[in-house]
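Q: Structure tokens for this one, please.
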Amino acid sequence: MPQPSAAESTDPGQENGQSGSGNVQNRKKKRSGAYRRRNRIQRERLNAMKKKFLAFKGAVIGTTTASAEVSSNQPATSEVSQEQNRSDVTSASAPINDGGHPVASTPSSQENANIIQEEQHLPDVSSKESQKPVKFLEPVKINAGTPRSHQILGLVGARDYWHKFIVLGGAVHEKTLILKTVLNATHPTEFIPVLYRIEAPHATFMARGCTAAIAKLFHCKFKLMLDGYNTPDKMIMLEVILCYTHTSSMGLCERDNLSRCIVKCINKRYDSETKTLDLSNFPNDPDLVDLFYCPLWLPKVFVYVLQRAKGLGKPIVNMYLNRNELPAIKVKNIWDCFDSLKMMDLSDNNLEAIHCLAALQSLKLTELILDRNPLCAQYTNGEVYIREVREFLPTLRKLDGVFLYDRAMPSWHRNFVISRDGTSFVDQFLERYFTIFDSGCRQCLIGLYHDEACFSMSANYLTGQSTSSDARLTQYTVESRNLLKMSDYSKSLQLIHHGPEDIVACLCRLPNTEHDPVSFTVDLVQFCESHLVFTVSGVFKQPGTVKSLIRFFNRTFVLVQVGNLQYQICNDILFISNATTKQDQDSFKFSQSTPSLTLMALNSLKVLTLADQQKMTECMADLTDMSPRWAKKCLEESKWNFREALQVFTELLKMNKIPGDAFVKA
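A: Here is the predicted structure, written as tokens:
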């Protein structure tokens, strides 16, 4: 039998010793690898548990499976899939948070133990097959019937969720009215409503970071009265779906970010040639109106917009802030940055006191527009108004479009009255004249014209105005005596109307009108016992058309005395044109009360009831200043013919046959 060679021959004891030492080394290697793997898993689990508790502390509920790899050699990677937005809403009886999702209350010791036990069974995140999606809360609806609890209020402020506000039946109301009502009701808390939508018959919008606002809604039982109303039919009810959707699934991408949109608007509204920043009607900007509602009357929004405007790094000489409903302009330490500002437009806002201008004292403004603010109505004397404004802005040279002069020059007045004694008479005359003129019964004006009175009118078409395209002055140009436009001068004498009947017949041929008394300016240039001369100008519209046509008029009256403090019109000159763009914008901003019974209706009544007679008596007494008893007596003698009663009254008044007792009201 062949003997093994030296290389092949081995000592059994030696062989066993070698294999034993190798096994020990292998076991040590395996043990050290297991230790490292076990330590890595423990670190991963501890890190995941820390994240879990931080999530509970921040009121963001949901089991996260992503854990961070602490080891620098093998960083863990996690893929978190977003669960789709749920459309179903859980019952309001379930615990809910401020976002409208189920509330997970503060974890107890048993719940903490369960969480720890769950963490101990977390899979290895280095394996992609073991990764799980993030779990989100189910949305929960709250309303007036939902009991208020600490769990609800404690989770309303979840930063990662949007809450959905539902205005029941809100589709019939204007967007701005609803949002203003909600923001004013939750004042002084401020939040930005986004994505206002009509989901018939309701209106909805989203909001977040509104814990205090929802607490106020709980206080008023989710019931609000629309701004400017005080009737039960203007009450709105709200519901809120808390935690309606996660911020990651909201759909507001980077281009829709509020800050970016505001900066975009400011850049778009800045004119580098004139160095003008136009922030007028800011919340209705096309880049904002469909996504956000950020009115400048919210102080935080106002400050933020001004800060972004200053951040442009461009000089701003003119700034327009009109039509923003600003209640105040006091912004701490912000106006000091606009040292180049010279002109500011604050018209059409809600500034109520002149002291609000103290916020602008650091500026060297040379022009300011405050027109159509409540504070303007507090001043009847223009000199006082100018003086108090310049106390805050001494460098001002132009106010409300009027240049201010330091030298002793005549001040500008809206109305000129040569004698204060004639003011009340002119006001009374204009009120009665235009009330009858607009009533549709212009025949009643016949008693106001002198037997030898004359009347003429002219019309002119203004180009380049917003009213130019549909001026339609044909009905006035037929009677126009504008010598510059007349081709046949032989008609110039025919268009002068003489006598009450001819004048009133011409007035009746003109279209129906509705004058705006707020637009009237009056100049009383002559006043004495024998006669007076004054002009009145303003705007009126032609009712009964698809679009009310705004006209401008200027009328000159010459009145002569015909009795004891009684006057009649002896000359009437009327000029009419289409309104200018500014006149059109400023017209009919204040609603006018409509007479309960017009003169036309009074004359058209055939069978009079006691109520009709009472209305006619009240109207007669109002027009003649007689007591109701004498007004009724005058109507009875005229067999309740209102026009005849006015004519009889005028004739008797001329002859001083009406006793003084008739004008004494009980």
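A few notes: The radius of gyration is 41 Å. Residues 334 and 636 are 72 Å apart (CA to CA).
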